[in-house]
Amino acid sequence: MAISDNLVEQGALISVYGLKKYYNKGKIKALDGVDAEIYPGEVVVVIGPSGSGKSTFLRSLNLLEPPTEGTIVFDGVEITDRHCDINLHRQKMGMVFQHFNLFPHKTILENMTIAPMHVKHMSKKEAEEKAHELLKRVGLDDRWNAYPIQLSGGQKQRVAIVRALMMEPQVMLFDEPTSALDPEMVGEVLEVMKELARGGMTMVVVTHEMGFAKEVGSRVHFMESGRLIEEGSPEKMFEYPESPRLQDFLSKILL
Amino acid sequence: MSISAEGFEKVLRYAELFKQGMICTVSISALTVFFGFFLALLLAIMRLSKVGVFKLIAATYVEVIRATPMLVQLFIVYLVVFSGIQLPDITLFGFIKFDRFFPGVVALALNSGAYTSEIIRAGIQSIDIGQTEAARSLGLTQFQNMRLIVLPQAIKNILPAIGNEFVTIIKESSICYTIGVQEIMYGVKAAQSATFIIAEPLLIAAALYFVLTFPTSKLIGYFERRMRRGDIR
């Protein structure tokens, strides 16, 4: 593919070209032709009204939503190719969900070690050491033997983040990570994400936390009706929005 | 109708028949549960697969089994399917005739598999799709996701229903006496024809079935509580 080769040469970690996702035989266009690049080390924050396709976009990046059309190149490999072994590439993309999706029948430690042990064939001892180390980093090592239901929402999401980090991903995808949290728990999760961003992790974050976007975002994508309408630095996007739709969106949320 | 201590005394001279019947009923049920479960798992996964042919085969099978009587299925398996198959002339535990016992197990397992597959299917579908998404996003394969994430949770949810199915099989295995499998009801018939006593053997049989099924459901309840560990705050 000429276009994707080009983008890889420029150093993009993920290149998206003409991404479309239709439901009901094209009646619903969740994604209607999205082009985007994610470069190593940057934090791309995707904003937009609900139903704009931002979650679908994020979930397409690791093919949780197989796109109807379009190309995604990740780390030099066209993962939308039918012959591509997606399991191999998914482990290099960590994902954090709105509803945490911890495994309720596993302890916190088991939640973290299951993928490294079964996918990477890491030894149990090694995986557990690594898990304890990561849990310490988010201040939850004392809860390693608890079950997810015994944790608060904020704690669950912090575990979900380090669970994804166990696979040492090249990029972390966040799908509204704070939307299901009680307000007082949002801060602790954002703190972990900021820490991660400062450490140089490549991140794509779908969120309504404009404060987070301003503080750690290297670029902001504004989506509406399944399209990427406008993109730019947080300053440009929030201070000098160009498109009327972004201006309209910002006027509704930044009060 | 007369029930007397005397009657029981006479019937209990044939206690050996009931003991054998119990061994046979337990063996036939255990094997049915075992094979039926794997058949059910296969059917459930076929039914949930994206391949249309698998779906159709599994759905048709389940509907046919559920829409026909067990007795008819048993006779078809024993008199039709196994009529042309020479089974080894062996006896299990020194008294169970394998050439009758085995078709009995096959018929029961084929039947139970259909019912259990619906239970398993519902169980798998009851697990939040987010679990699969999380597992797949971590790089687990579809098979690993089923084995490590979805099925353990699904089985916990459906354990009471599976337990009921096990209990049902213990009771329904009594139908196998019609093809000459020496389970509990076969013992009843034998004792009745030897003593001309009707009621007491039946009461003994009822008691024996109760002794088998009641602890089974209690045991399932125990495991169910144990598996709920993860739900306790």
Q: Brief overview, please?
A:
The complex is a heterodimer of chains A (255) and B (233). Chain A is α/β, with parallel strands linked by helices and 255 residues long. Chain A has 10 helices and 10 strands.
**Strand fraction band of chain B?**
under 5%
Measured as a percent range, the helix fraction of chain A is 25-40%
Low-confidence stretches of chain A: 1-8
State the assembly state of the protein chains: heterodimer
Description:
The complex is a heterodimer of chains A (255) and B (233). Chain A is of the alpha/beta class. In chain A, helix 6 (153-165) packs parallel to helix 7 (183-198). Chain A has helices at residues 2-10, 54-61, 86-90, 108-119, 124-137, 153-165, 183-198, 210-216, 234-239, 244-253, and strands at residues 14-23, 28-38, 43-47, 69-74, 77-78, 93-96, 171-175, 202-206, 219-224, 227-232. Chain A is globular. In chain A, strand 7 (171-175), helix 7 (183-198) and strand 8 (202-206) form a beta-alpha-beta unit. The termini of chain A are far apart. Chain A has a six-stranded mixed sheet with strand order 6-7-8-3-9-10, sandwiched between helices. In chain A, strands 2-1-4-5 form a four-stranded antiparallel sheet, with helices on both faces. By secondary structure, chain B is an all-alpha fold. Chain B contains nine helices and two strands, in the order ααααββααααα. Chain B has helices at residues 5-11, 15-48, 52-66, 70-80, 98-125, 129-137, 142-172, 184-195, 199-227, and strands at 91-92, 96-97. In chain B, strands 1-2 form a two-stranded antiparallel ribbon.
